[in-house]
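Notebook p. 47: complex prediction with magnesium ion.
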Amino acid sequence: FSKQNGRNGFSFYFEDLNIDSKRVIVLDSELRKAIENRDFTLNFQPKVSTQLNKIVGLEALVRWESEKLGSVSPAEFIPYAEETGLIIPISEIVLEKACEDLAKLRLAGYSKISIAFNVSSIHFQQQNFLESIQKILEKNNTSAQNFEIEVTERTVMNNDSDTIRKLVRLKQLGFKLSIDDFGTGYSSLSYLVRFPLDYLKIDRSFIQHIVSLDDKQAVVDAIIQMAHRLNMQVIAEGVESVQQLNILREMGCDYIQGYYYSKPVSMDGLIEFLQLWEYEHQGEIE
Ligand code: C2E
Ligand code: MG
Ligand code: MG
Ligand code: MG
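Predicted complex, structure tokens below:
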């Protein structure tokens, strides 16, 4: 990010985020309003074990319906929120909502499924990051054991003592840790050895053409072997077809996430999905 390149704030957002400058003005005020009203919801997408056909976890994905802009994709407003610092209050709202939805899930009888949430590197780098997370868990009477944290390569790129201290502390608290969008960053692999990560999520861009392209297959196969050698489990993102699923299963990929099983859905929709799944798979749910 190079703020100096822009003549002013707007031309900078304009260049880096590819948003029309008029839209940026509306986006900004709508986003601030949404934060004030806690006007975000979460959708959930199941993670399914390839060997056992078992649902082992969920990823929480933020959704925002703006009065003036309609539904805005997180792929648009999260990068903007990261640039403006609005990501911090948004992250806190997301975690609070995740706690509320977890309570719903437990009430529906699903006692072990964990919820993964995405943590922005901007939030992670905040000095009070750990405290802010712990405070929300305490307030909601829940604990880290129920959650996984997804960080991207951007977060672990700074191979420094502050990053390792925070990751080790998160592990001690009981969070499982995932590296998200693996393969899209430009960092070295040294962090994989240094940091206590549980899961590696292979980015959708590698999975997309895995059926037709041999070189994509080779890369995915190598990533899975490497992750296993490092005692990490592998999740494939964006699996849409049974052909993709079969290849990944054969390669020993541990978990699958994607439209093939389910699009991200509301907690109510998810509970229905789980009930149907239990019925069809005779109780194969954590
Ligand atoms: P991500 O964490 O890598 O999430 C996976 C994205 O892939 C989600 O997009 C999901 O809907 C989509 N997806 C899942 N399966 C499939 C599939 O089979 N096919 C296709 N085409 N797409 C699939 P979504 O929900 O639009 O989120 C986009 C990104 O926005 C996320 O990527 C994540 O980086 C960010 N994001 C979403 N929610 C949050 C949040 O609460 N906090 C933060 N910091 N970032 C978030
Ligand atoms: Mg994610
Ligand atoms: Mg991802
Ligand atoms: Mg991704």
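Notes: The first strand starts at residue 40 and ends at 49. Residues 1-14 have pLDDT under 50 and may be disordered.
Next step: compare against the earlier run before touching the bench.
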